[in-house]
Amino acid sequence: MQRDRIEIGEETTARKAFVWAVDWPGWCRGGKDATLAREALLAHAECYSVVAMIAGLVLPAPSDNADLDVVESVPGDASTEFGVPHAITAMDRRPTTLSEAERLASLVEATWTVLDRMTAAAPPELRKGPRGGGRDRDKMLGHVIESDHAYACEIGLSVEAGSVSDRAAVEAARGAVLEILRQPSDGSPLADRTWTLRYAARRIAWHALDHAWEMEDRTQPNR
User: Fold this and answer.
1) In whole angstroms, what is the distance from residue 149 CA to residue 177 CA?
2) Can you tell me the distance from the alpha carbon of 80 to that of 62, in angstroms, rounded to the nearest whole number?
3) Nearest to 135 by CA among 165, 177, 164, 172
4) Of residues 13 and 220, more confidently modeled
5) What span, in angstroms and rounded, lies between the C-alpha atoms of 159 and 168?
6) Backbone angles phi, psi at 197, to 5 degrees
7) Closest CA to 172 of 193, 154, 208, 145
8) Per-residue pLDDT tens digits for 155-210
9) How far is residue 27's CA from residue 111's CA, in Å, rounded to a whole number?
């Protein structure tokens, strides 16, 4: 990885914060505050470099907070505190050229590849969380698939809802989403709804990776 600065956005409340790399959808981490979220973002740089590599890209390699350039900071809301990077920011409303859209779509597709690889490597029963909770592998994957279907509807698509046992429908829905994300945009909401192209890319990619990395962590007995 090459060393360079990373532009980040922040979404914060009194109890929760999310930080994300503006140009790298899915590289997003949360924490109790922005400082902890930035630390988590840096800690997952190597993990995200796999996504970049799958997409045929090279991820810059920030080493500490000095390499993170906060270009936008917005207040969060109840969804933020629930655990979702919910704010659609000015950076998300930027126009997107054809080449930029193709790049974003390739990164979203790569996050699904990582999720599928993690699912294939994980045991059916995952290590429980500190309070004894947490979904097992197939329920977690099913949750992501259901969410992806909701996301597809949010950007104006009418696609069949896939499932863990219906991979053909999952792949068809993913393909339809990628076709939307590959199109240039003036920054307006997709399908005259709420999500812009850039926000759709980072929200979809974040959710896939968040659960892929959780699955990996809970497969390891000592994590």
Assistant:
1) 9
2) 25
3) 164
4) 13
5) 12
6) -60, -45
7) 145
8) 999 999 999 999 999 999 999 999 999 999 999 999 999 999 999 999 999 999 99
9) 10
Q: Taking the C-alpha atoms of 43, 46, 47 and 52 in order, what is their torsion angle to the nearest 10 degrees?
A: 130
pLDDT at position 132: 53
Q: Tell me: the pLDDT tens digits for 2-56? A: 456 899 999 999 999 999 999 999 999 999 999 999 999 999 999 999 999 999 9
- Give the 3-state secondary structure of the chain: CECCCEEEEEEECCCCEEEEECCCCCCEEEECCHHHHHHHHHHCHHHHHHHHHHCCCCCECCCCHHHEEEEEEEECCHHHHHCCCCCCCCHHHCCECHHHHHHHHHHHHHHHHHHHHHHHHCCCCCCCCCCCCCCCHHHHHHHHHHHHHHHHHHCCCCCCCCECCEHHHHHHHHHHHHHHHCCCECCCCHHHCCCCHHHHHHHHHHHHHHHHHHHHHHHCCCC
For residues 113 and 130, the answer to whether their CB atoms sit within 8 Å is no
Residue in the block written with tokens 């699904």: 112
Q: Residue 151 corresponds to which tokens in the numbers above?
A: 């996301």
Instruction: Report the predicted TM-score, pTM, of the whole model to 2 decimal places.
Output: 0.93
Query: How far apart, in Å, are the Cα atoms of 79 and each of 50, 109, 208?
Result: 29, 25, 18
